[in-house]
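Record minuted for everyone:
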Amino acid sequence: MNQQNKNRFMPLLMALSVIIGIVIGTFYANHFSGNRLNIINSGSNRLNNLLHIVDDQYVDTVNIDALVEKAIPQILTELDPHSVYISAKDVQIATDDLKGSFSGVGIEFTIRKDTLHIQNVIKDGPAEKAGLLAGDKIVNVDDNPFVGKEVTNEEAMHRLKGPKGTQVKIGVVRYGEKKIKYFTVTRDDIMTKSITATYMLDDSTGYIRIKNFGEKTYAEMLASLALLSAEGFSNLVIDLRDNTGGYLDKAVQMANEFLPKNRLIVYTEGRKSPRTDYKSDGRGSYQQIPLVVLINEGSASASEIFAGAIQDNDRGTVIGRRSFGKGLVQQQIGFPDGSMVRLTIARYYTPSGRCIQKPYTPGSDAAYEQDLVSRYQHGEFFSQDSIKHTGPAYHTRLGREVFGGGGITPDIFIPEDTTNITSYYKEAVMSGLILQFAYNYTDDNRQKLKTFNEMPQLAKYLQRQNLVEKFAVFAEQNGLKRRNLMINKSYNLLDKFINSRIIYNMLDEQAWTEFVNQNDETIKSALEVFRKGEAFPQKKDDKSDKANKKVAFRSKAINFQRISGIPTNYA
């Protein structure tokens, strides 16, 4: 072979030598270096390798899918409190509430003593058409018994929800009858509303209560505003108390209705998400109407976007207590198996530049979840001076001072009133005994109660029924020792709470809202703002601010009806 041929084959020989060297090196590394894996030792590779090792070498057989299902939430916990994993079986439940519709039988239910009770039948829904009634107890689904420990909210929704057009056979025990009655229900699309109450507080003031910010919330709000317009409203209260949020774009659309053109509503920004500004387009139909927004410690996320936009633009007055403090934006990312993660990709900022996300330590979910309890314990629910601002001061368009780093602080603070709360009342509420008693009373007296179609008439009837005494007997039979002095002190609280639950059971959430808003000090404060013509904020001097704090501190608000919330278990 001449020199020219040797030079021609030299690169090929060198390549073969390198390949043989890699193969030999890999062999010895795998067999003589403690089985260390021969790939880049990055974090993601380590996780994959660990799962491979467990699957290949662990002493017992391991369900890798189940292991991953448990591991993912723990990983996300190390990021922030709002990045979460949702398993495939829970995705529908997690998204139905914000979609504004689901496919099912059309009932609202509650579970009492391991039995599913139909609390309400959705008007014109499949269950009503099939003949099911509020008060029926579901004991059989598709010829299989459905009682006992297996009766959970998740299992009930799994059995009763389903694709539109499919059928489910439901067996119920009806009040006063011993035999099971069977109904075949054809599932259909069921509409759910995020606006749960629209009515006039007085001759000139409209009121809208928004439960969450879902896909249809903006359209629902326009319908509510049209309804109030027909009633001749000239002032507006938007109640966002206990509204846990939802879609950011719906909050932006709503704020746009009330703001002049080119006002910043909110902006978002993250490491991989460039700043995005959301501004008003000037086409809103209610830019001049006097506006009050109600918030409390249960108002979060999109609620805070809306309240912050109104406050920072000096467009309306915010009344209540400091909001929750969620200023993180999540994006939903689906997996092929149907599960998904809601991953925080940005923070949102109010027009003044404040991020209202309250402080958190990655991996310390317990402390984060206990924040509201901590606020209560150090007195924030009762005194505005107890609010701890952790962020810097910012300023509204008029120069009013506002704070970030932990929720929206209202312009007018309304404390909780504990004057007549006793340990007996607290236990009656937190134990669920009031809810149980109210449901039993509703069930036992449904025929009589059905004769009252309006809230005022039903409330007037209930006030004559001595329900506090009947509850005290029921509670004692169920382990809550009778305390006559405490019962007398908390009599009005107990009476209103019991009545509110019965009104909800027999009528709807609008009737419940109208009832609990009677004599509500937050509502009274809103009406007083309108009466004085002070809905549009003005820059105040220090003396005015201090005077406002003192006035607010003298106000009293009874929030007892909202402690347990309203059930939202639909199927």
User: Anything to note?
Assistant: Residues 3-32 form the longest helix (30 residues). The radius of gyration is 29 Å. The longest strand covers residues 340-349. The chain has a mean pLDDT of 85.
